[in-house]
Amino acid sequence: MATETHEAVGEGLADATGVAAHGADAAPGMPQLDFSTFSNQIFWLMVTLVVIYFVLSRIALPRIAAVLAERQGAITNDLTAAEDLKRQAVEAEDAYNKALADARAEAQKIVAEAKEEIQAELDAQIAKADAEIAAKSAESEKAIAEIRATAMENVEVVAKDTAGEIVRALGGKADASTVDAAVNNRIKG
Amino acid sequence: MATEAQGEEGGLVFHPMDQFIVKPLFGDGAVGMFTITNVTLWMAIAVLAIVGLMVLATSRRGVIPSRGQSIAELAYGFVYKMVEDVAGKDGVKFFPYIMTLFMFIVTANFLGLVPMAFTTTSHFAVTGVLALLVFFTVTIVGFVKHGTTFLGLFWVASAPLALRPVLAIIEVISYFVRPVSHSIRLGGNLMAGHAVVKVFAGFAAIAVVSPLSVVAITAMYGLELLVAFIQAYVFTILTCVYLKDALHPSH
After folding, report:
1. Exposed end of chain B (fewer CB within 10 Å): N or C?
2. Cα–Cα nearest to B247, from B98, B78, B101, B79
3. A12: nearest CB among B15, B73, B187
4. Any idea of the CA torsion for B224, B230, B231, B236, to the nearest 10 degrees?
5. How far is residue B101's CA from residue B202's CA, in Å, rounded to a whole number?
6. Are A61 and B76 inside 8 Å of each other by CB?
7. Domain with B153 in it
8. What pLDDT, in 10s, does the model give residues A80-106?
9. What residues form DSSP beta bridges with B24?
10. What ipTM score was computed for the predicted complex, to two decimals?
11. Which of B55, B71, B196 to mutate: most A Cβ within 10 Å?
12. Domains identified in chain B, total number
């Protein structure tokens, strides 16, 4: 116990003052400068480095490089696929717009056609109606003219009869032809 | 230990550096080259952690990653981009090498923050070897790729002729100091942080200051988490910068 304490004090002193090794078996002030351990450290360091180098260069680094490349590839593929889909969407939109415009034009055409058809029919009907009206009015005019003519004749007949009667009533002798001539003359005049 | 500490006058015993002692895992004896020590244990744990993250977590190879796979991919992308941006396209073939350094340092740094853990990257033996590996790799790559024109790195053609020899000396010195600063930056940062945490922990033995000490340890621990990542990042990006010098030596 006592010797241990003594050693500890000695070590503490050596540490405090920075005095380097004071014996082969005693711990030096700075273990870093204890050259007796250098060969051991260097040997194990070289072993460690060689192992790490082989593990990294043979297994780890190619694997990580492959994973990174694969991921990059996947990202690139996805991006191109997205671009493709986007283009398709644009195309679909264009097609839709075109279809819409076509449909609109078609509708306009149908409307115009219908309008034209209706107009033509209307015109035909109007013409037919006009013709009918014209025929009817012509007929009516003829009928009126006939009525007028018959009325004129009747007037003549009545006038001649009346004139003859008047002449007879007045005591004159009514010559039929003279009366007719006189009446005709009057009517004309 | 507590009674022992009280037995000494004052009762305050700091052993901030004890955590860095390399000791055999089985029995006590001298630490030989092939002895299985705590260094071995924590390096093995680091290897297992890296295998778990980079191999097991990615075993599904999901196009939609799991959490673990995301972290592995993040680490991969982080270092890959760093190598590509700093060292250029032709630096990419050094990517597995730089990834090894980064993964080892970052894993060892974070494992060192586990309580009772041994921090392998706080030893200059380790960081020095890492830095020297980078130094020699860069130097050899430079000479193999560019031959003697690689020496143009030290001959600043854009400076006035009279200044060039002076600059060349400075450049040569700075080139050879690189591995030193490279290794001490990493090891020193980790060692200092861990030692400070231990010192604060030592103060916790005094009842009056122990709450303050616990708060300080918590704050230091947060800082150390930051340092653990930043030092790994700095080490890696400096490796990329040095590699860039070797691949494109013209200023």
Report:
1. N
2. B98
3. B15
4. 160
5. 34
6. yes
7. 2-247
8. 999 999 999 999 999 999 999 999 999
9. B37
10. 0.87
11. B55
12. 1
